[in-house]
């Protein structure tokens, strides 16, 4: 997102507490005079924070984002959707800036409507282990709408479906890095349940383009951003084994609690309101991602 904003000629200040992020991902921006990094926990007050002039937009993308990370940090995850969202909304309000929040398809829980459309209110277990993430994002959406209605902040809500690409952490626990890591090391790929559960995978550049368009739009209600091409996890595992020329097999493990059975975004609204749809084919996106992970695995093994 930072790369895209800089490419569009904006000046960017990145705030991150590095809970799950890595400075390596920003190394290429070290010499950019239009980019500044501030290590900060957005759950803490921003008193005295000076973005270096008037801010035009606040993009609140901070959160533990993988099941492994939010299950390890449930309280911080609930805080970043609640306290963190409020702090970022206050920052936007103070600067009369636009505000965008990256919410999630997890707001739909284990959906009873398929594909998922924005008007579906979801089927979320509010007290299950994953609720720290799902309910944090649902609260964040509610807080965002409250700031829009009460303080007229120009808000946008993106409901992101599984997105992948270079710069993810190898051990992040999400399906693409997990499968890539295992395939590139020749280890068996871990498939939960019988692998018939479905997911849809969006390449990062497509997603960033959707977010950028949404940020410039006047749409206040949530917009799904994701790739509607749906496949079973078992098919996806086979695809990755083939693409990486790996000799890996597949092992099965028990399904995690509240794991959604089906996931596919209905992106009619994004097509209509933003003129957006994904353009990067899965094969191409996975190839870029595999190149990145291959370098990471080689560096670790060296
Ligand atoms: N990638 C996906 O498939 C996906 C799907 C749905 C929603 N999202 C949402 O999109 C956003 C970005 O996700 P990503 O995949 O790029 O994840 P990411 O882990 O690469 O980025 C999230 C960043 O937030 C930072 N962070 C966490 N808590 C923080 C805090 N209290 N203060 C400051 N920084 C904090 C982390 O250190 C990390 O760098 C997240 O809000 C995530 O919930 C992502």
Structural features:
single chain; about 300 residues; alpha/beta; four-stranded parallel β-sheet; two-stranded parallel ribbon; 9 helices; globular; binds nicotinamide-adenine-dinucleotide
Compile the SSE list and pairings.
Layout: H1 2-7, E1 12-16, E2 35-39, E3 57-60, H2 67-72, H3 74-94, E4 98-104, H4 131-151, E5 155-160, E6 163-164, H5 175-184, E7 189-192, E8 198-200, E9 202-203, H6 204-216, E10 223-225, E11 230-232, H7 233-243, E12 250-253, H8 268-274, H9 282-301
Helix pairs in contact: 3-4, 5-9
Nicotinamide-adenine-dinucleotide binds next to strand 1, helix 3 and strand 4.
Structural write-up:
The chain has 302 residues and is an alpha/beta fold. 38% of the residues lie in helices and 16% in strands. It is built from 9 helices and 12 strands. The protein has helices at residues 2-7, 67-72, 74-94, 131-151, 175-184, 204-216, 233-243, 268-274, 282-301; strands spanning 12-16, 35-39, 57-60, 98-104, 155-160, 163-164, 189-192, 198-200, 202-203, 223-225, 230-232, 250-253. The strands form 5 sheets. The chain has a 4-stranded parallel β-sheet with strand order 3-4-5-10, with helices on both faces. α3 (74-94) packs parallel to α4 and α5 crosses α9 (282-301). The longest helix is centred in the N-terminal third of the chain and has 21 residues, at 74-94. The relative contact order is 0.13. The mean pLDDT is 95. Nicotinamide-adenine-dinucleotide is lined by residues 15-21, 41-43, 61-65, 80, 84, 102, 104, 160, 162-163. Nicotinamide-adenine-dinucleotide binds next to β1, α3 and β4.
């Amino acid at each position: 997102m930072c790369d895209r904003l800089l490419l569009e000629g904006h000046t960017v200040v990145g705030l991150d507490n590095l809970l799950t992020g890595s400075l390596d991902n920003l190394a290429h921006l070290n010499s950019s005079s239009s980019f500044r990094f501030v290590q900060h926990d957005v759950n803490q007050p921003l008193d005295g924070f000076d973005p270096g002039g008037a801010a035009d937009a606040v993009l609140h993308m901070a959160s533990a984002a993988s099941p492994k990370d939010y299950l390890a940090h449930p309280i911080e995850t609930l805080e970043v959707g609640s306290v963190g969202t409020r702090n970022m909304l206050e920052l936007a309000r103070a600067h009369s800036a636009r505000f965008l929040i990256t919410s999630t398809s997890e707001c739909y829980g284990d959906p009873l409507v398929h594909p998922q459309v924005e008007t579906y209110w979801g089927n979320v277990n509010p007290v299950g282990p994953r609720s720290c993430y799902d309910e944090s994002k649902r609260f964040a959406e509610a807080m965002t709408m409250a700031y829009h209605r009460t303080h007229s902040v120009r808000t946008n809500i993106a409901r992101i479906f599984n997105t992948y690409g270079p710069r993810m952490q190898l051990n992040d626990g999400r399906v693409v890095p997990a499968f890539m890591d295992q395939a590139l090391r020749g280890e068996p790929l871990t498939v939960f349940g019988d692998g018939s559960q479905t997911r849809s995978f969006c390449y990062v550049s497509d997603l960033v383009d959707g977010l950028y368009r949404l940020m410039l739009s006047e749409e206040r209600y949530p917009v799904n951003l994701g790739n509607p091409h749906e496949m079973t996890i078992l098919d996806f595992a086979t695809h990755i084994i083939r693409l990486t020329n790996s000799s890996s097999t597949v092992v099965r493990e028990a399904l995690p609690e509240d794991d959604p059975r089906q996931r596919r975004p209905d992106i009619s609204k994004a097509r209509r309101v933003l003129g957006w749809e994904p353009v990067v084919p899965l094969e191409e996106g996975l190839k870029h991602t595999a190149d990145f992970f291959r370098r990471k695995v080689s560096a670790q093994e060296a």
